[in-house]
Amino acid sequence: MLRLDPLAWGYPTMAVCSAGCTLDLAMAKLVWTASGRGRYDWWIRVVFARWAGAALPLDSKHRRLGYISPKSYVYLLQKWGFQPTLPGPYVHVDKVVRQQFGFGFLKKVLGKTRTDSVLAKKEGPEGATTREPREVPTQDIQYDSIYLSEVYIGTPPQKLLLDFDTGSADTWVWSTELPSAIQKTAGHSVFDPKKSSTFKPQKNSTWKISYGDKSSASGVVGTDNVTMGGLTVKNQGVQLANRMSSEFVRTTGDGLLGLAWGHINTVTPRQVATPVANMIAQANISKSAELFTAYLGSWRDANDEDHGESFYTFGYIDEETVKKSGEEIYWTPIDNSQGFWMFDSPSATVNGRTVQQSGNTAIADTGTTLCSGL
What we know:
ten-stranded mixed beta sheet; 5 helices
C-alpha cells in the first residue's frame, strides 16, 4: 500500500530491486500505502513460478503437453492484430467489476476499483460474448503483464480502461487526435473531446513521454471531469494522444493514469497536476485519508480466498485485505527527488539466497511487470 504526498510525482522506467536480482512482478501480489509526506508503507508477498521454455507462453496445466492454451492464443491474436485461419470458440474480453465504496465517513468521497480480465465463449451468429458463471476469471492480461481499471472522462462520461502507473505522472488517453487508422484498432476505446460539454482545451500545451521499454506517446492537452472508483475529479488535466509508438497500438488499454510525483509530469509549458493531487485538493477528506493503495492479484492465486482479484483504493486502506494476508504494513522513508516512489533496498532474497548491496535503492512501479537489477 502506498501513501500519497500531493506535492510531487514520477517518471517512467522499470521497477528495480537489488543488483543481480531479477523478479517478475507478474508473479507478485503487492499492496502499497502512501502515508505522511515522504513516508511510504510497503507490503509485498511474491509468488515465484517458472516460465515454460517455449516460444509461446504455456498455461501451467498444459506445459508438459507442450500445448498453447486458448488464453495465450487469444492474447496473441489481440496483440498482433492477425485473424485466425479457422474460427475458434473463444474471445478475450475485459470486465470491470462493480465499483465499491469505502467505509464510515469516507463513503461519500472515496472508492475502490476492481478489475478483471476474462476468457469468454462466443455465443450467437454475431459472436456475442456471455459473462455467465462459466467464464474463467483472471486478474491479469496475459500473465499479469498489465492491470487495467475503468475510468470515466467527460460529460456525458466516456469509459476507458487505463493502466494505473505509479512510475509516471502523465494521464493520457487514446483520442480522436490520433490518425483515423489507429483509432479503428480493435479492442480500444477512443476519447472524443467534442462529445464532452465539460472539456476545455489548453492552448499551446503539449506533452511527450518515453518509457523504460522505449515506447512513447505525445499530443495535446485539455481539462475535463475524471471519475474513478465513484469519485469525480473536476478540471483534471487530460493529455490527448495524437501520436504513439507501435507498442501501445498492439497492446490492450486506452492509456495511462499517472500516480507518481507530479514534478515530472511532461506537459509544457506548464505541468498539470495528477488525478490524486487534484483529488486531495478538491475532496473534503482528512489528512489521514490522503492516500491510495494498490492490490495486484494474479491468475496464479485463483484458489486463494480472494481468488486473486485486483483493486486500487483511494482514501482508505482495505483493512480486511491486510488482515487476510496475515502480514503487516511496513513503513519506510521515501525519496521523491526523482519523481519516483523510491526507497532503500540494500538486499534481495530469492529462493533463500540473499544478495547484499549497500546503498542500493528501488522504486515501486505498477506500470511494469519486472523487478530488475541495475
